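Re: your question from the hallway

Yes, I did run it. Sequences:
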Amino acid sequence: MRRVGLRGAVSMSFALKNNFGSPPKCRSVEHTRGSPGTRSWKFNNFEHICCILPCNFAGPLQLGETNSLPVSRPDVITPHLAGAMPNVITPHKAGAMPIQELSRKRKGDIDNRENGDAEMEEQQSRSEDDDQQVTIKCFREPHSQIEKRRRDKMNILIDELSAMIPSWNPMAKKLDKLTVLRMAVQHLKALKGASSSFTDFNYKRKPSFLPQDDLKHLVLTAADGFLFVVSCDRGKILFTSESVLKFLNYSRLELIGQSLFDYVHPKDISKVKEQLSASGLYPRERLIDAKTGLQVQDLPVGAVQLCTGARRSFFCRMKHSRTVMKTEDKTIQPSSPKKKESQRYCTVHCTGYMRSWPSTQLDAESDDNESSHLSCLVAVCRVHPNDACQPSREVKVKPTQFVTRFAIDGKFTFVDQRATTVLGYLPQELLGTSCYEYFHQDDLQHLAETHRKVLRSKEKIETSCYKFKTKHGSFVMLQSQWFSFINPWTKEVEFIVSTNRVLGPGHTETEQPSSSKLLDEESKRTILIPGISSGITTMIYAGSIGTQIANELLDSNRVNCSPSSGTSSPFCPPQDRSPMVSSHANTPNDEVTDSDTVSKSGSESASKGATYAGSDTHMDTARSPPGESSQIDLDSMVGPGLGILSNDEAAMAVIMSLLETDANLGDAVDFDNMHWSH
Amino acid sequence: MTPERERRRIMSCEAARARRRAESQVLIDMSQLLPLPSSLRPQLDKPSIIRLTISYLRIHTLLSGFADRQRRDEEGERETRERRGAGARERREEGDRERRDAGDRELGEGREEQKKEMGETDLYLRILGGFVVVVTTEGDMIYLSDNIREYMGLTQVELMGHSIYDFTHPCDHKEIRDNLDLTAGQSGCGGLRDFLMRMKCTVTHKGRTVNLRSAGWRVLQCRGCLKVCVSGPSLTCVLFTCQPLSLTHTLLHTHTFTSHHSMDMRFTYCDQRVTGLLSYRPEELLGVSVYDLCHTLDLHTLTKSHLNLCSKGQSVSGVYRVLVRGGGYMWAETHSAVVSKPRPSQPHQSKPSPPLFVACVTYILSGVEEPTQLLSLGQMN
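Structure:
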């Protein structure tokens, strides 16, 4: 009966097509398919149906709306519309209609309509000879693709399903679709029979995808923690999950009934108390607003309870029983060697909420109103990965290693305490001084080069082995891995991290041990006034290597930012400026000049290496003679035994003033990059 | 058309119809067997039924792997219950606080009952403040707890069986893939996973639900572990809990301080509590980078968090050491979020509004360790 109607519908739609002509039809098909109603329906029902039939029906309908369909048309359309429309096209009707009924109808319709489908296909093929070929092509193309996709999707799903069914033998021959489905049903039935939870009361009332126990287990496994119920007034542990054994090494039997505070680090007790004492209403200034990140100033009382609820999220340290079985002893004797104190605790992150049980449950027991509203903290505690587990992938430290951090100019800003054992200096002695003050002169060139390289590289760079002056005047052999820390937001180098490995004691300077001692003593003095004594000037100089390299970077950044300054700077003012200016003006240009400056800075830094200093001198003379003169003088000045010349003092003053202005400019650049902050 | 052809056509039609009818019937049976609310069943199409069945079978396989442990747990629980009863009796014998004990016991039982009533798992899920997801290493979400709806607006049935990559931010796919990888966790702490991802969320800030196509992203902190199931069809899954990160739930206590930062993590504001904890005055922290305050060994932790912050807008730092003025350090964890300029005029725009600042809540997790050790220049003055 309905089938006839459908067939009629199909033929009718073709009739409509003939009447309306192809171009508007095509458009209407497209339009209908794009409309949200059909699309969303497609997800819920069998796709091909919605894609074919609605197109046929809705097409003319839409035309009817826009083009004012001839009066006779609606009469023709109505019969099949009555049959098909409520189920296929109008999804909003599903809401109004009782779902069960709808589904029954739809399920009943499926076969018929699919037949209609098939028939239509044939009709289409028959009508190929018609003059409607264009229309049909246009209509069939997406349909066959959609069909194909649907079939592919189904096949993939069926394949996946068959993989999940325990089959008696992995068959070479693929099972057909229907068999797979039947087997899956059998398998489901078997599972259902096996698990009783399907039939229990809870399930029938509110079925959940998983039985309660399984889900509970899943939650605890995924959360990788333990459950805790603690009464708020005295901190008594009312309940914990069994998994507490795994994390704190206490069995739940030991814990239940005990006070939580016995298991919390003494210094965290107040913290936990604070969390427990705060029932829904708590000083409001302690809450922060997510929008502004500011503390909530005033909020209606109800809102506090509503928006923040009584959720809690806090950290505390809890006792961890170290022995496996003899846990009782631990709890009784609270005083234990202080050394192990920190190891016996682990940091726990508690997430949960405050819950109060209404007084009705307790009425029988306690008629004094004291505990008429007993509130508890119900929380999941996750053990935080402690420092033993803490992976520091970026900076790995072995016992013979220590970590230091330099500002970009080579000044120590962070020194690991292990440095003291290796170098003899206390961290505060090193902090703020330039690392170049401690390097052996032979290594200065190489280290300056590495320093320069590391500022421009994202990679870690290994230095070759070098000598570092210890507090006692001797040298220790170190090898370091340097990398520059680049701020993820500004992409600018903030500092350099150095992981230093001790290779063994270096050879002490045999030639002039006294002078190195002298240097060492002077390094501890503050560098305030340049050019008072030879020693201090030397120190300024060594430290300024780093500053110079840092300035090079800042300059190159500046050049990169504003090309105009880059073009103007290189060779214009070398006469009245210090050699450093010319050198860092060169750096951004290309690699060749970079290597030039490296070697040049080597010549600057290497005070005693006469041979290569000489060779470098040639290069420098070739390039910038005016700078070179002071260069040579500076070199000779650094030599420990040599005196100073007055014009060198002047040069130094120029350097210092330049460095100051550079530093200021560098700050300015930083501020530019902070424009987001306001 | 010949009558012969017509006959064959009808026959094949009949056969096809019978086949489809059988198939539909099997699928209906299948949907009946799925543990779903009956109201939902008729809304499912064929692929969805199969998709959910696959998910169900998979999660069942996974759980059967747990069966042993679960049994043990149950035994433990029974034992505990007995012990608890005994414990309560003992305490009553002690004589003091009799009433309270009875109250407690009653409460415990009451709670237990109540738990049964509201569904024990509801409690677990509520405590969690998030939902549970089980994902295969291929990325198929084989299970999601049904409370996902509260957080994301999407339902369990909608998502189960689908690929996680269809519902997460494309930029996070690599990270998700890395975390689903079997070998990924080995370098860290024994298969533990902790990462942030952005997932489609159809609930707006005002609580309205929108269409999936206009869904926004919500940052979720995913923590969990890898589970390998070898019995039966081999199945490797990552179980994790997804918790939306929000600073609203934070009840600040004495061991926390809030701060604002520019996007490069320099302090622009810090509340007074920092003085009590780290001994810095708020005003002297202005302009100081967070990186200057941390121990160099924890640089990576903070950088990762900062990168998350830049890309996803929210982050959790994980544990790091913050240097205390005058010497020593404390373990801390910072939760942060980028606060953007609100643009009420155009709520649905593709371009995100420019970030204003970073809001941070820092939890101090420990006391001052090695208080005599000066480590950085910033600690000295």
